[in-house]
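Late entry, evening session. Most of the bench is empty. Finally got around to the prediction I had been postponing all week. Sequence below, unchanged from the version circulated by S.P.
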Amino acid sequence: METALTGLVGLFYAVSIYMMLSKHIIRVLLGIAIFGNAVNMTIFTAGRVLREVPPIIAEGRTALDGVTANPLPQALILTAIVISFSFFAFLLVLAYRAYQELGTDNTDEMRIAEPEGEGLPPLGY
């Protein structure tokens, strides 16, 4: 199971980076959302996916018996989901507002801050 999730996480990273390299803002935003999911799945697989007992100490004992689940990755993922969703919502509103003002979602056509008479900045090395 962990091997399949590792492959899926790698696929998520590849797709997200490919989408973030696009010239269209919507594709960039979707790439950022997929990247956040890939990071969450990385943390989840690092915390072991196997079925284990919850970390509850039985009455009359002072330590845990055997292997138990680690609650820290679950708490980190829950926090990361909330933060990434709010970040995505903010970027979506920002992109929509930029589209309303500029009339395009192509980043090459969003160069209003650059001088009119000069050529484009270097796009490569």
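Two things to note before I forget:
The two ends are 43 Å apart (CA to CA).
Residues 2-51+69-109 form a domain with the Helix Hairpins fold (CATH 1.10.287).
Will write this up properly tomorrow.
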